[in-house]
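Bench notes, afternoon.
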Amino acid sequence: MVKGSPRMTRLVLFGLFLSLFSWRASGISEAACSSMHQNLLTYDTTTQMYGNKADVLVNNVDFSALNAAIFRSLFVIGSAGNDVEVGWTAHNLNATNPTLYIEWVDHGTNHGPFYHGGLVAGTTHNLKIQDANADGIYSAYIDTAYFAQTGTMNFTQGRVEVNTERNNTCDTAYSHFTNLKDCRTPSPCTYNTYSNLQLWRNDMADYYCNKIDDSQYFVQKGTATSCI
């Protein structure tokens, strides 16, 4: 989900001169980068789940060099304007480096992101969001440790989605999600591997979903592949 907008930079003549000089020296134009909100979303076609969890890679890149915010996250979506989300973000508002967050949308009103500590580049963490008691309150976990919960939502079950997101076409969308599982019965949650992992939507022209099986996939550059 979009959280904030890229910072505006005031351009002075000296800075413009340096930019033009750099462009002529490198042969690469900044016009090659575009501010554009893009998602690559997958989902389990078996719907009405109480929770969603997966092992999520934290990219190993220079986050200070990003042009805009990126996200890797898990959703449970009740209906339009009602969803819960857990994941990590970087270059987003005051979160320059990868940062754990929870966020939810209730009747179209966005709450968050609420940050809950930094993550180390190149590591993988098990993230989970669930309504284990079927009471409308979703709890978020990292590596089995509880760290936050939503307000009371108007749904206890929904479609599970996995999200790769960026806001500039030059920023990386590389992702790796493994051990994809959803909660099908509450009190306590019983998790099973996704029944049928599929592509929900891809807005990107240069990254594709490379499905290994129903439990894992990559988002990577290269020849177009399918999450079927």
